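Q&A log
Question type: sequence-to-structure
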Amino acid sequence: GAEARSRLAAEGPNALPSARQRGLAALVLGVLREPMFLLLIGAGAIYLVLGDLREALVLAASVVVVIAITVVQERRTERAVEALRDLSSPRALVVRDGIEARIAGADVVRGDLLRLREGDRIAADALLVEAHGLAVDESLLTGESVPVDKDAVEGPAARVFSGTLVVRGTALAEVVATGPRAEVGRIGASLARVDSGKTALEVETARMVRMLAAIALALCVASALLYYALRGDPLAATLSGLTLAMALLPEEFPVVLTVFLALGAWRIAASGVLTRRLPAIEMLGAATVLCTDKTGTLTENRMTLVEAWSGGRWRPPGDGGPGEQALLESAALACEPAPFDPMERALLREVAGAGALEHRYPMAEGFLAVCHGWRRDDGSRIAAIKGAPETVLGACRLPEEALDAARCAVAGAAARGLRILGVGRAAWEGSTWPGSTRGLEFEFLGFVALADPVRENVPEAIALCRRAGIRVVMITGDHPDTARAIAAQAGIDADTVLTGPELAAMDAAGLTHAAARVQVFARVRPEQKLALVNALRAVGEVVAMTGDGVNDAPALKAAHIGIAMGKRGTDVAREASALVLLQDDFTSIVDAVALGRRINDNIRNAMRFLLAVHVPLAGMSMLPLLMGWPLFVHPVHVVFLEFVIDPACTLVFEAERAQPRVMDRPPRPPGERLFNAQGVAMGFLLGAGVLVAVALVYGWALSVAPEAEARAAAFTTLVAGNLALILANRSRQLSMLRSLARPNRALWWIVAGTAAALAVVIYVPAPAAIFRFAPPAPGLLAAAVFAGLASVLWYDAYKRLRPKP
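Response status: OK
Response body:
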């Protein structure tokens, strides 16, 4: 405790130096390189040449304000990503003051005792204190993929290194070096980064930005040439072109995407699901199949020994039936002395093993049992075996009549949803243990039955998946009858149950057909999960797959959304996955899917809003030139609107709650584009509605009021139209009026702040002069507000008439 804290303070965290966050100066320089700010600076320079110092200073001040907003937003996103990075760092099981605790890998200090097991990523350089069949993959350091056997003896074999992987066995090791002092630190390797690869959304957004930027550049040049041709004055023409470029430049698109994905991942983490790879967020909304294991995900992972079969009948443990003591003792001897598996913990609660563990026969392909060789206190040797009933019965070589009775006992208990383990033992008189269990003559002792109840909220979650068009497939290593009973309790269709051996006998076509129609698979080996994932992908499914073991990693990697168990899962499974369940609970997956759908909806709504708001700005930059009106849009007006657009996208839409009945609709098609033809067309139509309203108000106002009042009235229409676009795009189902009843605190801050700022620039003389405004008559102002809000009302009618999803 205290010693560990002092060493952590003195030697620093057990982490390699990571890329530093960008400092304030670097952030500011990055912002200034953005096209929008270069345009602002260019416009300010032109105003200086024209002698308009006040306008130039306003634009310079706006640059400072926008830089401040951008830096705050960048820091917020970085904090979210850093928090995710901290959560995704490796964990370590340490022994401190005789007490086992699982801590963050960064908190491991020199002198800690690490308890290692198969699938762990070793947290620090350490010397082995004890080792049992330990083998480590050191390819990270050596490039050699062949596992290295380790032992607690003097020499290189006694040392294990940070970042390497335990592929077999267990061990206890004392930490001797951490962080940059570890071997991996010396060679500059780096681990546990949040994935930074380009997502499909990012690629598509970049393509859209390039296309809109090209359009903006072309229209900017056209606007400058048109102004010069119609009105002369090359500097004013250049300023007109720059203003149009500022109005059209789509710099918000990548910002919105980055913020939504980073904060979306943080929201999902708050619900108990860690996002290790951001592409998983965009895929969640398209998931069509959830492949889940049984133990701990659908069930409570609270194993309890409920019955023992010996002497030809099932009895409660402790009932004193014939042979029960030998049965329970042998079951305990076939467990790890310090087990991680809840099933083995349940067995050791009933009776503890005695003697010295001398040899281990691990599970292997086709041999679904564990066998341990012990030397008893009296010097005799005994081998205890426990595992799948069919494996243990085969190893004990029973006569046919006894086999039939045992199989009937298994079928009856499995039909009640109990997990059944066969148990046997063999005496051994040799000085060394045989190379395989075939050299031992086992006596069959009976069965133990363990219960692991289905989680209370699982049936409701599976029913929700069914309504959402998501098929739930259970894949387990349990007996088929046990799998069928648990599936029925959970609400999964279990009319057909396929087993691992049956899958192994199928050709590719048969496997694909089975994967498309069967919901329950039993006695499945970890490597068969990969074949099932590939078969589901072959029929067009978007697959989410859960797993926890080393052998699950290929299937987790192959699935569209790999989901590892946070509590009982191995480090390898977590590193291969896109998501990690912090509570190993199936309902967390369903919650994550609902959140994924919400995030995807909000991104699409925000992007449609962004498309729409650029249309009236661009149109009112060109239209006055063609109509012979006074110029309407100046750089200062674009800056004002930017203060509405950016917060609206990053605050209002990101905080928007899930759409009504979000889980009562089918998954979105996996190939559906963010900027599909319908979405782009709708964005332009919404923007065109606002453009028509602003143009009508400006043209009418110019005929009844002075230019400054007309500009103020039309600008009020544009601002009101922008606020109406926010309301219209909050939901693709609800009307603007009904959407007002949906809580969103950020929305009201934006509306109130925008209304207050608009009042200031219209009615306060100094800012009104900068904006070229004068207070319009009350009737004109009311008409302008009404026109802006009414410009998108047609969209409400469209929502009512369009087919419901």
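Response note: The CA atoms of residues 54 and 770 lie 7 Å apart.
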